[in-house]
Each structure stands twice: as C-alpha cells, then as structure tokens.
Amino acid sequence: MSGANVHPRGQNGADIVDDVGTQLAGSSQRFTATRRAIVSVLADADGPLSIPEIMEATDDLAQSSVYRNLAVLEQAGVVTRVSGVDDRVRYELGEHLTGHHHHLVCTSCGAVADVRIPDALEQDLERVLTRLAASAGFAMEHHRLDLLGRCAACR
After folding, report:
1. CA 44 to CA 14: how far, in whole Å?
2. Among 43, 42, 18, 41, residue whose Cα is nearest residue 31
3. Domain 13-149 bears CATH identifier 1.10.10.10
4. Rounded distance, CA 83 to CA 133, Å?
5. Strands 49-50 and 146-149
6. DSSP-assigned letters across all residues of 76-139
7. Helix (H) / strand (E) containing 46
8. Per-residue pLDDT reduced to its tens digit, 8-66
9. Cβ 107 vs Cβ 149: under 8 Å
10. What tens digit of pLDDT does each residue of 86-140 get?
C-alpha cells in the first residue's frame, strides 16, 4: 500500500536526520550508526514499518539491536509506535519531524500507510473532534485517525 511521503515542512531525510541528532543530544543520548540507520529507513518510508521491515531495509543490523535502539528512540520522543490490525507493532518518526498525518490500515494484509488530508479538512475535523470530546467532558489535546479498510492490492 503506497502513501504520500509526509514531509510537510519541506524536510528531506537528511534534514530529519539532523533534527534527530539534535533531539537525541538534548536527551543525553548518542546518535549511533545503528540509530542513524533506523532513522534514515523510517525517514524514507511511505508509512510505519515493522521491525522485520526495518531490518530488511538495512544491511546488517541484529534484531536485538533494532529492538533496543527503537526503545531508546521512542523514549527520546523521536519514534512513535503505531498499532495495526495484525498485532504487529510498527514504528514511524514522530509528527514533530514529519508533520501531522493519519493512517490507512489494511484489514486484510495489515499494511499501514501515511495519509495527509488537506489543511481545510483537517481544521474541520479538529473542530468536530474537539466538540465531540467536550460533549463527553473530555479536553482533547491531539488526535490520530486510522482509516480501516482494504488496500488496492487486497481488493
């Protein structure tokens, strides 16, 4: 399932890698070669990736190293977990690096793709969700939207 590569601030992968290096330094973490490789793979991806997909996109990273480094990147706020319908956790760069977006989740094959909606529609959605939350006595801070269905390959 292909999605639009989401870099609304005009950042390319190299700019994102630089931002991550700065963020990790602020968290007293080193930007190791393994972390750089993981971030580069996620920056170039069309959507969230599972650990096997990350390993497939890199040459020689051990699975245990990928798990360990994703945990550090997640704790530092660089990476976010995305759950699909197939119980496989996927990872993507945080929205502060890539911009706000939503996900298309295939209920058949489990693929997850990023999708960005036009700004005007996003603002309408934000207003509706804020009203919905308020009607339940809830103060919404942020939203994530996952659309469930079947991708083009599975239809």
Report:
1. 10
2. 18
3. yes
4. 22
5. unpaired
6. TTSEEEEE-SSS-EEEEE-HHHH-S-EEEEETTT--EEEE---HHHHHHHHHHHHHHHHHTT--
7. none
8. 334 556 678 788 988 888 888 899 999 999 999 999 888 899 999 999 998 788 999 99
9. yes
10. 778 899 999 988 889 999 999 998 888 889 999 999 999 999 999 999 999 999 9
DSSP assignment letter at 53: H
pTM of the complete model = 0.80
Question: Residues with Cβ < 8 Å from 93, sequence gap 6 or more?
Answer: 16, 20, 39, 42, 43, 78, 79, 80
Neighbour count for residue 108 (Cβ, 10 Å): 13
- Of 151, 87, 154, nearest in space to 115 by CA: 151
